[in-house]
């Protein structure tokens, strides 16, 4: 199956509520969320999507209870370790956006290893947004322009955003019922198609995902111009 969509961004919301509805703690929901990351990544790879950018940890997520933050860090490290064979088997390249500086050296090492091992892969690129916030990304881009004394045109700003190597975003999907972008890819969202679903991330199914991809094909993208 082939879709015209090249680059998908996903705000994976609803892990906590998914767990609470099962009388489990939030960590259980994040584990289920990580499993869903695996499934959706494999689907994108099979569908010939070029880039999948996943909002895994935002610059605002540090405000969560420290136990939840440290669980998410451990989960991320474990996920990357376990995921490597799947990335290799499916020719998937691993990349990140966001500022990795505050992460532990163990996590940074695992991230680096996963990037290096998969750098030559030519299939899907899975991009994890880690300690990512669109405001932070834009500030870092502007500071880089200042550093090199570059006039900030739209093209130059775009070229200095974290997503520069991965091209334009075609669609952003948000699970979990909220209708907002929560500081995710704000610049890049300018002409992206937006899809919101009340499905909680661990329940997000292949069928629903395919329905969204099919719906994308029906949308007329005019980029501010006129029809036809
Ligand atoms: C939102 O659910 C989700 C996150 C804060 C981060 C997403 C994390 C994962 C999908 C799991 C780990 C990811 C990887 C790549 C290993 P929430 O906790 O805000 O849910 P709620 O809105 O129901 O409380």
State the gist of this model:
The protein is α/β, with parallel strands linked by helices.
What report would you give on this structure?
This protein has 228 residues and is of the alpha/beta class. It has helices at 15-20, 26-47, 66-89, 105-118, 134-147, 154-160, 206-218; strands spanning 7-11, 51-58, 93-97, 125-132, 171-174, 193-196. The chain contains 7 helices and 6 strands; from the N terminus they run E-H-H-E-H-E-H-E-H-H-E-E-H. It has a 6-stranded parallel sheet, with helices on both faces. The model has no long low-confidence stretch (mean pLDDT 95). Bound molecules: farnesyl diphosphate. Residues 12-17, 26, 30, 33-34, 37, 56, 61, 75-76, 79, 128, 176, 201 line the site of farnesyl diphosphate.
Set down the secondary structure blueprint.
Layout: E1 7-11, H1 15-20, H2 26-47, E2 51-58, H3 66-89, E3 93-97, H4 105-118, E4 125-132, H5 134-147, H6 154-160, E5 171-174, E6 193-196, H7 206-218
Parallel strand pairs: 1-2, 1-5, 2-4, 3-4, 5-6
Helix pairs in contact: 2-3, 3-4, 5-6
The protein binds farnesyl diphosphate.
Helix/strand/pairing category? alpha/beta
How would you sum up the major sheet? 6 strands, parallel
Output the CATH class name: Alpha Beta
The amount of helix comes to 40-55%
CATH architect. name: 3-Layer(aba) Sandwich
Small molecules bound? farnesyl diphosphate
List the uncertain runs.
none
The average pLDDT score comes to 95
State the helix count.
7
Shape: globular
Please indicate the count of domains: 1
- What's the Cα radius of gyration? 17 Å
- Alpha-carbon distance between the termini? 26 Å
Strand content: 5-15%
According to CATH, the fold-level topology is: Undecaprenyl pyrophosphate synthetase
- Strands, total number: 6
| CATH homologous superfamily grouping | Decaprenyl diphosphate synthase-like
Helices and strands, in N-to-C order?
Answer: EHHEHEHEHHEEH
Question: What strand line-up does the widest sheet have?
Answer: 3-4-2-1-5-6
